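Memo to structure team: turn this sequence into structure tokens by end of day. - J.P.
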Amino acid sequence: MSESGEDEHTRPLSSSSARKRPHSSALELGPRKKATTQDPLVHHGRHFGRAIHAFCNIQTLIVNGLLRMSERMNEPDESLTAEERREHMVFRELLRQVPGLEKRMMESSEEDVIIIAELIQKGANGARADDTKGIKSAVVDWITPKGQALNPHIHRNVKSGRGFNHERTGALLCPAGLDWSNTEIKAKLVNGQIQVAGDQWPLMLYANYSYDAEDPWNGLLRSGLLVNAFKHTFTSPSSVDQEPKATRSGNARIHGMRSVTKPSIAYIATQVRFALTSAQVFSRTDHVTDSERFYNSILELLEDPEEKDEVDQLMTWWNRQIFPVYADPERLPSKDSALARIREKRAALLIGGRKLLSSG
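Reply from structure team:
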């Protein structure tokens, strides 16, 4: 406000000031704005949330990780609790993913470390929001039978008609072990008499949406719905309906992702489950969808050493779905191939060398 009481934005321009101010027209684009450069940490944060840990408090993770590195460097891992070991493993994976991050943090003040954490968190949150929006729309196509239509119709950007309110999404969200075709069970799911906890996994996780109570590992986390969502998120939306190519693209290629990670499977399962529900807002504290508990329960199974054989088979299966050039390291080379002959000769030389040593 000027001394005369006139606001500078409303006071009439003098002829001299009018000449100095550049002409602007609503029908002209005007000067191009300078592009803002986004910190690379935001970019890395997007991949961290998708492929390393989706519900992580980045600031706490970094602060705790740095403290362990400085104060407990010489202590054995056995001195940590199981939760601390798991958290530190996630922290080390973050350092591995982001080149130069450890050095940058070691040379930063406490305030700068907090800023670093905020930038990574921004990326993780932004990716989750983008994926939630994208899968919410695309999932309608994936659950619609070829050449048919859903009845009633599900709007791509509206969630109120989903969840147990719709026959198709209800069947996919029905907890394994419950019979969606049972009228009484269906009614209780619809009216909320049966509350579904996050660790009650839905049929949509299973191949052909079929659950075998005698063999609960059979088909688990191998549904076509999950594969579609993974491709949509990590390779490209167009790769869902196309034959896989021998090259990586999209987010996977950008971040140098050459194989599927266990957290990425849990993340995609969580996103698909949420997309099928009628819940409007994706929130870690939402007790209706219980998304964080759902995510962690899948991750705990995949990281359980007791389940290693089944998990290894599952990871090999996933890598062959997403990365066609993926090779099982235990797969033997083709019989009579040059590679097979090279390995045979190497083995023969080693055996011969051992015999000479033993005879001498």
